[in-house]
Specification:
49% strand; single chain; Immunoglobulin-like; 153 residues; three-stranded antiparallel β-sheet
Amino acid sequence: MIKKLLLVMIFTISCTYGQQTYMQVKLKGGGITSFSIQDIQKITFNTTLVGVKDDKIFNVIKTFTLLQNYPNPFNPTTIIEYELPKAGMVDVKVYDINGRLVRSVLGEHQELGAHQIRWDSKNDAGASVASGVYFYQIRFAQSVLSRKMLLLK
């Protein structure tokens, strides 16, 4: 993960000018650009949310992201959040512990940015499902991400 991150960019906190702190970003294709730390809402790596105000740095570090549902455990509804780096077709499905499809929650074209959907712990037939472990999976472009959630009644 660290090597992969270093291939994309190297972050260094540079000097402080008065009360303003800047971050220099070395871009993969070469070149360096600076951004005010105050312009960045939060930066975390791995599979968590990356939110940035400045479009230049947003385009450098933005990726397809699936967040952990909340609340988790839940009863009877939960929120699933994800970030799209560009517009495209999005499919969100819920599977049981045995890998059987429980519900196709979403299947539509969506614009880039942050999105959230709610799952009401019902299957495709509209019946409530039993307590237990479920997996939600999102497909976007050639990527598939999934996470585990727990329904407690």
